[in-house]
Amino acid sequence: MLSLNRGTFLRKGLGVLRVSLSSSGCGNGGGGGERESRVAMESTLKDARDGAAAADVDPKPTLGGRVEDVYGEDRATEDQIVTPWATYVASGFSLLRDPHYNKGLAFTEKERDAHYLCGLLPPVVITQQLQEKKMMHIIRQYEVPLQKYMAMMDLQERNERLFYKLLIDNVEELLPVVYTPTVGEACQKYGSIYRRPQGPYISLKEKGKIHELLKNWPERSIQVIVVTDGERILGLGDLGCQGMGIPVGKLALYAALGGVRPSACLPVTIDVGTNNEQLLKDEFYIGLRQRRGTGKEYDDLLHEFMSAVKQNYGEKVLIQFEDFANHNAFKLLAKYGTTHLTFNDDIQGTASVVLAGLLAALKLLGGTFANQTFLFLGAGEAGTGIAELLALEISKQIKAPLEEARKKIWLVDSKGLIVSSRKDSLQHFKKPWAHEHEPVKDLLDAIKAIKPTVLIGSSGVGKTFTKAVIEAMASFNEKPLILALSNPTSQSECTAEEAYTWSQGRAIFASGSPFDPVEYNGVVYVPGQANNAYIFPGFGLGLVMSGAIRVRDEMLLAASEALAEEVTKENFDKGLIYPPLSNIRKISAHIAANVAAKAYELGVATRLPRPENLVKYAESCMYTPNYRSYR
Fold first, then answer.
1. Which residues are catalytic?
2. What is the DSSP letter of 168?
3. Whole-model pTM?
4. How confident is the model at residue 76 (pLDDT cuts 50, 70, 90)?
């Protein structure tokens, strides 16, 4: 197919035609270059107009007042082949349909005249601020969260800068709309609400063609990729190809909260099928209708993808793995962590944000980090990822081997407390947490035996922190620290109200999904949210701005420490262990600076010389969505 690249403009009837064409197709490489492509277009147009050259085409009126069908599309029958001309026009009606440049009613009179917009818009000229006010009014009229999500996605497809302006200025209100918990429902219904491609879909059918397939995406300067295979979407399980909502949402936050340019972000879904029988029977399902490919077939496809990414975008592109099942998540991170710039938000991002909250909580709890005892419900990629980073922090503080630090951390899975007598039957990522202890079958008995100061839920199973569990934590802790991290809200181990009520208002509580403030005995408690959005946008910005080529654990610790430092006394007085999201851009800049500093210290940064003030440099690198003026 012939397509016009960005920067092209085409003005029919004005004697102006400047085109830059490239040949691309699903799995086929570039053609014979710009000159050959131009000749191809000329030839096609000549055929359509009995020999008239492309620049001579003069659309003529037809019956009914329509313009003559130059390309032959209207004359073709359903079984005839037509050329689907794709043009990128920098003026006129097409400019209004280009989300990168469209400003709607904010185009000035001068811009309207210069870009052939006169008569295409109502005469009023309004500001971006008034557009923002209007859109927020519209979104607030919807009562169903999924309707709000769809309204935001529609806006992103129409006016990219206004979308990000809304998200940045109203982050606390809109974050639950564009990401958890609403994105979970969006993924479940993605086949029904799908409208246009937001990133590449790479299926088993594309095996052997991925390098060329990535070239079909119009952007070339990619800095951050978020990729999923849809097997473990939040706590909702296997959603197959419909997991694309997760990378799209994550990258919206990379741009809005971390300031990475939207055009440098690429969401990708790897479609190897799904084991979700309901989806396989759903007539609206958009993915491969087959059970999941596994083993060598799966590994080969992922390896081809990882190689193609590096070939297309270079050594410094960040590849974030998202919502892969445990058996693949750990394997992929271990395999490609030494050869690519990779990051798993479920394992490393969650760990970093939890560690930050715990470091901040010490100011409320008192004592040292190494003196705490941690008990997890859930020993999957999130639970073991958090546990490992906590052990690294303990090891760093007490200057002891990592194996010794792990003894302060206990995990409970579906079969009970992980202990050494179970070691032979454990998955490899659980084995480091198998300590000497008699077997314990359930969470409540484990709490009574271990007496933890911190209880962390990463099980993906709702309502598992029962009244008896919370009361047991409160029986030997003046201020029990309870983190119910599972997403979405329906899968949270307990609600904020339950945590505060059952602990008689003494719990320090944070969750993965947002909860409203709770009033108990006349006191209003504001629950914190251990949202990965605190970490990964700033973390990614730090990697990009330093030109890092690898991710190291020390960089995750640096991100956690930077976030913990942003929690003020005012936040503590409200019982919060995370700062308000309203300050997230400032927070992300500080996290980026800390991460970049650590990258330079470890020798994995390539952008030289190192900027003197990394915080100011981070702020200067951040994308801002204010409208630009056009010539």
1. 179, 250
2. H
3. 0.84
4. low
